[in-house]
Amino acid sequence: MAEKDTIFSSKIKYQGIFSFKDFYAFCYDWLTEETNLEIAEDKYSEKISGESKNIDIEWTGIRKLTDYFKFEAKIKFKVIGLAEVEIQEGSTKIKTNKGSVQIDIKGILVRDYEGKFEHTAGKKFLRSIYEKWVIPSRIIEYENKIAGDCDEFLNQAKAYLDLEGKK
Predict the structure, then answer these.
(1) Cα–Cα dist 86/97, whole Å
(2) Does an H or E element contain 28, and which?
(3) Mind listing the pLDDT tens digit for each residue in 75-101?
(4) Which DSSP string corresponds to 63-130?
(5) DSSP H or E run through 44
(6) What separation in angstroms does the CA of 11 have from each of 74, 93, 97, 150?
(7) What is the pLDDT of residue 167?
């Protein structure tokens, strides 16, 4: 079985005005283009209550780093009280959304994701030697890259929401 280590775990919260549709597209595009993750939507649920709705979204992003290592990201969006509003921008009225959004992300380094070293005790022993003595610097390099990509995604999402709220 593959060994999974959670390298990064963090979240951001934002409350204010933003276009949910544009924000959703921005997050998907940024993750696929900047980190080369293949994104799969595991969950999308909406609960409507009156004029507003709550949305739960869960994504899993995967990128193979080598034949041995894989980067996996678990991203959760929780949108509360999303409602349509009209704002005045210059001389035009624009329809947008207002609400609260929380983004959680976990960056995971998956080792031996194909289970090549799991068949015998000897192979498991060789894997431990390989990881401890042959490639420890490569493991640290991948861990830093995963943490950096996840942190940068949260920074970009927060910056996007802050810019949207200032319109």
Answers:
(1) 8
(2) helix 20-34
(3) 999 999 999 998 887 788 888 999 999
(4) EE-SSSEEEEEEEEEEEEEEEEEEEEETTEEEEEEEEEEEEEEEEEEEESTT-TT-SSHHHHHHHHHI
(5) strand 38-49
(6) 12, 32, 21, 10
(7) 57
Does the pLDDT value for residue 151 go beyond 70?
yes
3-state SS, residue 31 = helix
pLDDT of residue 21: 95
Q: Whose structure tokens read 């030697």?
A: 129
Q: What is the pTM of this model?
A: 0.91
Q: Where are the domains of the chain?
A: 3-165
Question: Which residue's entry shows tokens 């349509």?
Answer: 84
User: CA 112, CA 19: separation in Å to the nearest integer?
Assistant: 40
How far is C-alpha 77 from the chain's CA centre? 9
